[in-house]
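In this section we walk through a basic example: taking a raw amino acid sequence and producing a predicted 3D structure, encoded as discrete structure tokens. The instruction is simple. Fold the sequence below.
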Amino acid sequence: MKSPSERYNKGMETRRSVLGDRHVDKAEASKTEFDVPFQDLITEAAWGHVWSRPQWTKRERSIVTIALLAALGQDEELTMHIRATINTGATKEDVREALLHVAIYAGVPAANHAIKLTKQVYEELEDEQAA
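The resulting token sequence is shown next.
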């Protein structure tokens, strides 16, 4: 087995800082021989290259990512990234503004559904913090 690349290592560091150790540890534990190449790809490309670039803050990337995922109807990824706002610094107000943009540029139904999911995630996060 080869050593991880520098980009992979940076990607894993960024991925953990955004999604949290618990999420990444769970994802890593569920890897199989089938999806290792895919997991390596997203760790290096998404996290090690795009998310690690210094031009935007993690907050800015988070806002854009949420808008894109909402517009594309990628519910599972959207809720994961809403949860990640705890680590990225994107506020509820930031997310609300992003979803208003989705309504105008990608359609009201997409934004409406994303708002429903976002409210559910925020309720879950509040319950977890209260526990």
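Looking at the output, two observations stand out. The chain has seven helices and no strands. The chain has a mean pLDDT of 96. In the next section we compare this with other chains.
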